[in-house]
């Protein structure tokens, strides 16, 4: 097949359709941001209550602040249970290793009246929406329970998390595959940017709840109303179902496949794989090597990013002495800058290629994480006198947007780069390959850093993340760029916003 060169008319991204497709990712990030913001500190508190019941005995009337102020429970006790928190928080990623590849491949082969991806998205979204409100229910009952009941409530909360994990992961590959299903290879970085903007709106909703109704308000006795915890989860469930309804209304999958299949296949040889992939034959040795390096680097940068994402709330609480809302504020600030990155990453990739766009992002994030390691710990006097009441350091509001910008350059270009190594017939399979590497990394990293915390302190978190990001850059540097310099010309400026019929 002849190499595709510049067309008489530049390729234009269908912005409206891409945004509607992004609703699938919106639901995913909405749930995960709420899940990460609340579940990690919830589990920390339940495990401390269980493991140190003897220390707490006779002081059950004291809330979290009281236990800290009186010196009954301290930072070390919270450090000691983080390996358990890490294991539970890694369950979603461990499950994904087995679930996502299966459902990605199955969705490639599925034929139904709703399409090949939609049946999985519908079932996963509905079950998740039903299960979500049970997390705060079990937690709130566990906070007030006696020792025997505490175990039952903790098991109930973890079981609910497992149900959510199973069904969310069953539809993640099909949901993410929708974008490359209907987007030619040269436009996938820009399309992925729009998809992520829509997704981050969902994530922002979860973060806002974590700021307005932080879990520390509940566990320190400030606000012990169950509704204080239930409202975020109930609203999340309703919004998830609304986004699902809009997706089904606006994205008629089978009709779009009929309309766009010829166009998608026409540009199968216009990706950024080392050697162009135009058939379903085995990859060349060069492409296999390239793909392996990409996936190894991806695993390393996800280990770095996920460690910070999982424990940043606890880091802000116990190292910087802020409210649990500090972690959510960190996410909001970083996410706002990510939106800028989502808009410009595709344009940068058009100029210098996806490889170097990703490499720049890796370097930026690594430097910022290293800077985190120099933040001093709140003094023992500050913690004892005013637990969880310190403000985030001003420099955070410089570093966090920079991290958001850098990580967006990585995310926007890395997924399209992996899908460049397949034709449209195998998009579900290669989407699963991308997510298998990321989920393997995110399965290992919370457990690994949890054990490291037992031997060190919270400051190990930014050092760990910086080291892994540097390792990712070292591996990714050796990925080969495409041999051919012939590129399909993409529209730019206002012209790029065409084709929205």
Span of the ends, CA to CA: 30 Å
- The helix fraction, in percent, is over 70%
Q: Radius of gyration over alpha carbons?
A: 23 Å
Task: State the low-pLDDT regions, or none.
Answer: 1-8, 490-501
In the residues, how many domains can be counted?
1
CATH class: Mainly Alpha
**Helix/sheet category:** mainly alpha
**Which CATH architecture is right?**
Up-down Bundle
Tell how many strands the DSSP assignment holds. 0
Provide the CATH superfamily: MFS general substrate transporter like domains
CATH topology grouping? Growth Hormone, Chain: A
Strand content: under 5%
Largest sheet: none
Report the total helices.
21
Average pLDDT reading: 81
Shape, principal axes of CA atoms = globular
> Could you state the order of secondary-structure elements as H and E?
HHHHHHHHHHHHHHHHHHHHH
Question: What labels describe this entry?
Answer:
single chain, mainly alpha, disordered C terminus, 21 helices, globular, 0% strand, Growth Hormone, Chain: A
Characterization of this structure:
There is one protein chain. 54% of the residues are buried. The longest helix has 35 residues. This protein has a single domain, classed as Up-down Bundle (Growth Hormone, Chain: A), CATH 1.20.1250. By secondary structure, the protein is mainly alpha-helical. The chain is 73% helix and 0% strand. The chain is built from 21 helices and no strands. Helix 2 packs across helix 11, helix 7 runs parallel beside helix 10 and helix 16 packs across helix 19. The two termini are 30 Å apart. The N terminus and C terminus are likely disordered.
């Amino acid at each position: 097949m002849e190499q595709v060169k510049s067309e008489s008319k530049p390729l234009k991204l269908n912005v409206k359709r891409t945004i509607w497709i992004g609703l699938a990712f919106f639901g995913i990030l909405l749930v995960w941001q709420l899940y990460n913001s609340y579940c990690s500190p919830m589990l920390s508190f339940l495990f401390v209550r269980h493991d140190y019941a003897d220390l707490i005995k006779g002081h059950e009337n004291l809330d979290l602040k009281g236990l800290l102020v009186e010196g009954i429970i301290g930072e070390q006790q919270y450090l000691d249970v983080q390996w358990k928190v890490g294991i539970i928080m890694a369950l979603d990623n461990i499950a994904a290793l087995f679930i996502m590849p299966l459902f990605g491949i199955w969705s490639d082969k599925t034929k139904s009246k709703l399409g090949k991806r939609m049946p999985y998205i519908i079932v996963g979204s509905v079950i998740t929406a039903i299960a979500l409100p049970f997390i705060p229910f079990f937690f709130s009952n566990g906070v007030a329970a006696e020792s025997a009941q505490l175990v039952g409530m903790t098991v109930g909360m973890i079981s609910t998390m497992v149900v959510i994990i199973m069904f969310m992961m069953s539809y993640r590959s099909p949901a993410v595959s929708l974008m490359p299903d209907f987007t030619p290879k040269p436009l996938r970085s820009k399309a992925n940017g729009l998809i992520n903007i829509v997704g981050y709106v969902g994530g922002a909703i979860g973060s806002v709840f974590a700021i307005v109704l932080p879990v520390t308000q509940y566990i320190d006795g400030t606000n012990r109303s169950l509704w204080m915890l239930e409202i975020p989860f109930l609203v999340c469930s309703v919004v998830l179902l609304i986004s699902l309804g809009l997706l089904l209304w606006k994205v008629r999958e089978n009709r779009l496949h009929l309309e766009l299949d010829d166009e998608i296949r026409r540009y199968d040889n216009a990706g950024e794989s080392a050697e162009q992939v135009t058939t379903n034959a085995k990859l060349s040795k060069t492409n296999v090597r390239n793909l392996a390096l990409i996936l190894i680097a991806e695993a390393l940068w996800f280990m770095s990013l996920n460690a910070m994402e999982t424990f940043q709330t606890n880091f802000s609480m116990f190292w910087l002495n802020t409210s649990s809302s500090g972690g959510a504020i960190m996410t909001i600030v970083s996410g706002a800058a990510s939106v800028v990155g989502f808009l410009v990453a595709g344009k940068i990739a058009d100029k210098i290629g996806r490889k170097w766009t990703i490499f720049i992002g890796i370097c930026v994030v690594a430097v910022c994480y290293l800077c985190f390691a120099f933040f001093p710990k709140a003094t023992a006097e500050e913690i004892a006198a005013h637990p969880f009441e310190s403000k985030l350091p001003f420099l955070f509001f410089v570093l966090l947007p920079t991290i958001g910008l850098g990580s967006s350059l990585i995310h926007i270009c890395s997924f399209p780069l992996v899908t460049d190594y397949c034709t449209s017939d195998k998009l579900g399979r290669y989407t699963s390959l991308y997510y298998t590497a990321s989920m393997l990394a995110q399965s290992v990293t919370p457990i690994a850093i949890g054990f490291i915390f037992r031997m060190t302190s919270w400051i190990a978190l930014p050092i760990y993340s910086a080291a892994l990001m540097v390792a990712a850059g070292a591996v990714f540097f050796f990925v080969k760029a495409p041999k051919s310099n012939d590129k399909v010309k993409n529209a730019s400026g206002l012209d790029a916003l065409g084709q929205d019929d």
